[in-house]
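Changelog excerpt

This revision adds worked examples to the README so contributors can see how folded entries look when concatenated. The first example is reproduced verbatim below.
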Amino acid sequence: MEPRNRPQSAGQQPSQPGLRGQGDSAPENPPGGTLQLYSINELARCCSEETNKFLRQTVSNDRYCLELFRRAIVKRDDDAWACIYQQYAPLVLTWVTQHQSVAPILGQDGSAPLVNAAFAKFSQALTPAKMANFDSLAAILKYLKMCVHSVVADEVRSRQSRQYEEALELIDHEPASDDPADDVVSNISAQGLWQVIQEELNGEDERILIYLAYIHGMKPSEISSQNRRLFPTVDDVYRIKRNVLERLRRNRRLQLLFKHQHL
């Protein structure tokens, strides 16, 4: 390992600390091609050291971290991704817990699902083509932090939408007086109504969801837990259900049934 404070030649300016700080502070400063000979573990070790310097706002060398991210994103190297997750998960956790909107959405698992979701969004959004635009560790971490904010905002919206849907379900199960919808359903055969609904359904996921929700009376959480292949999350159940109900509201035959019954 070379010493940090090497003598400078006449006229050479000292390195200045900054966001990128690509000076001589790294353990080694090899030519660009030499980095490709580094193993993942060697890159991860150097990247960890340089990241700690960066976070302390001292002079750091970005090249090791950039090469590690390049292998993860461009080369799709799983070991590189594992090192990146291990290195930056504590930082992402800090960003999650510091977010002003996160407290109401933390469940029994705490912040872990949001941390994982942030890395997933980051890996999907930062494509190999986009990676060429990132020439500093500061830029990459800024992008990762944006993914954290996006994931938290998405979860907040999802929770609000879920609460709205649950409120609607409670209303749907309350007794209603003079409700034309109830009259229509009671005055036509279940087979006839189901046939109309079936014609509006697209795909296995919609058919199974509507059958389980309205024939068996299962809750969205139950549908998701028993059918992970079709509904990985409860949000998927609500999303598909909203799409189906919106189409059913526009169905002309159902509109006529309601209209005639109301008359």
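The second example, added in the same revision:
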Amino acid sequence: MADKLELIATQAVPYNENLYILIDFLNRTLKHKNLIFGVSQRDGEMVVSIYET
């Protein structure tokens, strides 16, 4: 059975080009806790998403 991602939360924040560095750090640090962090850009904001695998 394929792994599924369950969206836990999203939060929009003002655009910050360094947010990708934080998301990468969180993914590397919390992978063993079955958490995945994502970031996307929408309407001039950054949307951070947290998923559980």
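Reviewer comment on example two: The longest helix spans residues 19-30. The mean pLDDT is 94.
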